[in-house]
Design brief:
heterodimer; A: 479 residues; alpha/beta; Flavocytochrome C3, Chain A, domain 1; 2 domains; 6-stranded mixed beta sheet; 19 strands; 29% helix; B: mainly alpha; two-stranded antiparallel sheet; 17 helices
């Protein structure tokens, strides 16, 4: 620690005399950072974007996105409009109300002209993907998904002459009396300081920092899988908080879904998710069920399963289906464990055979006579006299072969971030904003989202606040 | 990779694509993936031939190497395509050209060499270097039947090998009988083929070729080669009509239809070939499959040189160089015909059939579709 503060002090002295090299420095390389750089470039030619990842991994969690939620008066996918009021109701419905209603309204209002702005910067569109038609009215799909979007934005940066550095690991922000002066970054062992008149931090959350998660979850965090970029370790978020930025959002909360337990530790993205849960049952490592698998239609419930599994012993669970239902959900990326009998399946999954067989047989007795389900709606095909119940799509698991998928919590993002005002300025603990520190994207989404999630809303927040932060930062630098 | 290993690796990657589906909007391959759950040899061969190597998906893929999922869709599809060409070709000895480019080069070289040797032994040297004008001038150098019979024989042979390949494609990819075929399916298929529709890279801004940005260059140059080739075929057909029905012997005037079609075709092919060669030489190697690239080069060079020598024959037809240029041109034409069933040109057959098979499949209710 001693060495660290020494280096900081020396660079502070150094910077105090050094001129700003850029008007606007953007820390981050995902959607929010890219939008900020593009918006800033409209007002000043002197913009630098610092992406921590190497070029092939650029784009943060945006790489794994596929659509953006926008209010509209009729959009390309549908002639039906998605009003600002309805959007806000959806948000309140899912999250129980945003901490900062004004910022939520700002994001939603400004989402209306995002598609046009995105098209202007080279984003191409496509119809809603098959199987996601329920979002066709509210969300817009960019062609090829998030990495294609990221590529298009980096192309736009290059066309507009915005400086970009990859492998740029920013380790600190130098702030004096509430005013940003410079960023410090590491080039291998060498430290480098770059001065700027304003900074936009769009460096994501801390979901890839297992040690940080352990503070709240203990060793259980070792069993979490991180669905996105391994670079979101929260370095910048931690530095901001250390420099008196006001924290917002529950630090223990994250958005997580059930992913295949065999998925990579980081960056498994969309393909490792499992949609088999509503068609069968889920048991924990003791072979017992623990939650209603048919509580609500899957698109509304898939996001609670990450947390449910995180709270189970060993942070593991098993999704069990049979020959009747194995083909009724989106094809999984890993082959299921397969066995001719329930006993054999229990042995294969290393579950207690007697308990597991009893769980399935009790479930089968409670679903006796249920023949068919309709996955597209709440079909009321349910268990009778079973705890926990399965409220819909409850068919007996009785036709061999039987299949099991191991499930782990797959974290998408964390909610905790820094508080911002309506100009995207980061607020200090005193309540006053830093004069020239702006934030956008996941690092400030806690102002609007504290739990739950609306599909495509992360990109909405990132785009709106990215543009806003970039514009305000450039304006400040020009003063 | 060969055989079952190759099919398994392609199946592994296709399974990842099927769980992801982000590329659904790019081309017909992805909707065709989505009506399947398992990927056996039939599926893999079909999908590989439906793939136009536009590379949009490669650059959009968050699982491309060095990600541990190592999805390199254009590369694995190219590799499978080559394997399928070999499997559907005949006889096995010559089909080996698809696995070993050296065999293809030897075949082309032998074709050129033998033709020239044949011409030289049959032609009196004085005639070869003399100036020939007026009707039948070419035939004083190489007699008509010496030109016609081998050409006819090779065309029939090539046609037969293609026919075998087409039937094998259909059986191997487990296509249903294309009859009765709806007018809609036929129109979609012909439209896609004539438009080179899927060289638009997702139907929008072109292939991601030669680098990571969408551009129309590949489609443009490919169109020039394609329509140039058709124009040259029209020229040959018209010349045959002139000669055998109208009884007018070549050479034909510069403003005659055979010369005009031939010249337009020749120039288009030369520009297209040079363009494609430059694109390929400067293209990104990561999504490429080197042996496939070798096959592309070999075909383009033979085709380009054929067109070039044809144009030179036209330009120098009244000089003493005509005899030797014509002989070389005929050698190249022979190489083009002989390597036709054993080189890159087969892609036109299999890709057309794959497009037809795709439209037939999509016009059926999806038995395998999953109703999520």
């Amino acid at each position: 620690m001693g060495t660290r503060s020494t280096t900081q002090d020396s660079s502070l002295t150094l910077v105090a005399n050094a001129p700003a090299q850029f008007d606007v420095i953007v820390v981050g390389g995902g959607n929010a950072a890219l939008c900020a750089a593009l918006a800033a470039r409209r007002l000043t030619p002197s913009v630098l974007l610092l992406e921590r990842a190497p070029q092939h991994m650029r784009g943060g969690n945006t790489r794994h996105t596929r659509n953006i939620r926008c209010a509209s008066a009729g959009n390309a996918n549908s002639s039906e409009e998605y009003k600002v009021e309805e959007f806000l109701e959806d948000l309140i419905d899912v999250t129980g109300g945003p901490p900062n209603l004004d910022l939520a309204k700002l994001a939603i209002r400004q989402s209306r002209d995002l598609p046009h702005w995105m098209s202007e910067h080279g984003i191409l569109w496509q119809p809603a993907l098959a199987g996601t038609l329920h979002l066709g009215r509210t969300n817009r799909w960019f062609l090829g998904g998030g990495k294609a979007l990221v590529n298009a934005y980096y192309d736009a940066l290059s066309r507009m002459g915005i400086a970009v550095r990859y492998d740029a690991h920013v380790v600190d922000l130098l702030i004096e009396d509430g005013e940003f002066r410079a960023v410090t970054l590491m080039n291998g062992d060498a430290q480098e300081t770059i001065g700027g008149r304003a900074v936009v931090v769009a460096a994501g959350g801390f979901e890839a920092n297992i040690d940080w998660l352990k503070r709240f979850w203990g060793d259980a965090a070792d069993n979490f899988l991180v669905r996105g970029t391994p670079f979101n370790d929260g370095t910048i978020l931690a530095r901001l908080i250390a420099k008196d930025a006001r924290q917002i959002g529950d630090p223990k909360s994250f958005h997580a879904i059930a992913v295949d337990g065999r998925a990579p530790k980081f960056d498994g993205g969309i393909v490792t998710r499992l949609d088999s849960i509503p068609v069968g049952v889920v048991v924990n490592r003791y072979g017992r069920r623990f939650y209603d698998e048919g509580e609500d239609i899957w698109p509304k419930r898939y996001a609670i399963w990450g947390r449910l599994i995180a709270e189970q012993p060993g942070q593991i669970a098993y999704s069990i289906v049979d020959a009747k239902t194995i083909r009724s959900f989106l094809p999984p990326v890993y082959k299921p464990y397969q066995a001719a009998s329930l006993k054999d399946l229990a042995a294969l999954l290393k579950l207690d055979i007697a308990t597991f067989v009893d769980t399935i047989q009790s479930f089968n007795r409670a679903t006796a006579g249920n023949i068919e389900f309709r996955l597209t709606r709440l079909d009321g095909v349910k268990t009778r006299g079973l705890i926990p119940p399965k409220s819909n799509w409850a068919l007996p698991i009785d036709r061999a072969p039987f299949y099991g998928f191991p499930l782990r919590p797959g974290i998408t993002f964390t909610y905790m971030g820094v508080e911002v005002d309506s100009q995207a300025r980061v607020i200090q603990r005193s309540g006053r904003p830093f004069s020239n520190v702006y934030a956008a994207g996941e690092i400030m989404s806690g102002n609007i989202l504290t739990k739950g999630y609306l599909a495509g809303f992360g990109l909405t927040i990132g785009s709106v606040f990215g543009r806003l932060a970039g514009k305000e930062a450039a304006n400040h630098a020009g003063r | 990779m060969q055989g079952a290993d190759l099919i398994d690796e392609a199946g592994r990657q296709l399974t990842i694509c099927n769980a992801c589906r982000y590329c659904e909007g790019y081309c017909p391959v992805f909707p065709a993936i989505e009506v399947r759950r398992e990927f056996g040899r039939a599926d893999v061969f079909f999908l590989a031939n439906l793939c136009h190597d536009c590379r949009a998906c490669y650059y959009a893929c968050m699982y491309s190497p060095p990600h541990e999922f190592a999805v390199n869709f254009p590369q694995i599809m190219s590799e499978v395509r080559l394997e399928s060409y070999r499997a559907w070709s005949w006889p096995p000895l010559l089909a080996g050209s698809f696995r070993d480019i050296r065999k293809g080069i030897i075949l082309a070289g032998l074709s050129i060499g033998l033709t020239i040797a044949l011409a030289l032994t049959l032609v009196v040297p004085v005639k070869l270097f003399a100036v020939h004008r007026g009707p039948g001038g070419f035939y004083t150098v190489v007699p008509f039947l010496v030109m016609l019979l081998p050409a006819l024989g090779l065309t029939l042979y090539g046609g037969a090998v293609w026919m075998i390949g087409g039937i094998r494609f259909w059986k191997d990819t487990e296509g249903e009988l294309p009859c009765p075929m709806s007018f809609r399916v036929l129109a979609q298929t012909v439209g896609d083929i004539l438009n080179l529709k899927w060289l638009r890279g997702g139907g929008q801004r072109g292939c991601y070729y030669p680098k990571a940005h969408p551009a129309q260059a590949r489609r443009l140059y490919h169109s020039l080669v394609y329509y140039g080739f058709l124009s040259a075929t029209v020229s040959t057909t018209l010349a045959a009509i002139y000669q055998d029905i109208l009884h007018k012997l070549p050479p034909y005037p510069y403003n005659s239809a055979p010369v005009l079609f031939g010249s337009i075709g020749g120039v288009a092919i030369i520009i297209g070939v040079v363009g494609l060669l430059v694109l390929k030489a400067t293209s990104d190697r990561d999504p490429a499959h080197s042996p496939s690239l070798g096959l592309d080069y070999l075909f383009l060079i033979i085709l380009g040189m054929t067109a070039l020598s044809g144009m030179l024959t036209l330009l120098f037809r009244e000089s003493s160089a005509m005899g030797i240029i014509l002989t070389v041109h005929l050698g190249l034409v022979a190489a083009l015909f002989i390597t036709m069933p054993y080189g890159k040109l087969v892609h036109s057959l299999y890709r057309s059939l794959a497009i037809l098979r795709h439209h037939l499949e999509q016009s059926q209710p999806h038995r395998n579709a999953q109703g999520h």
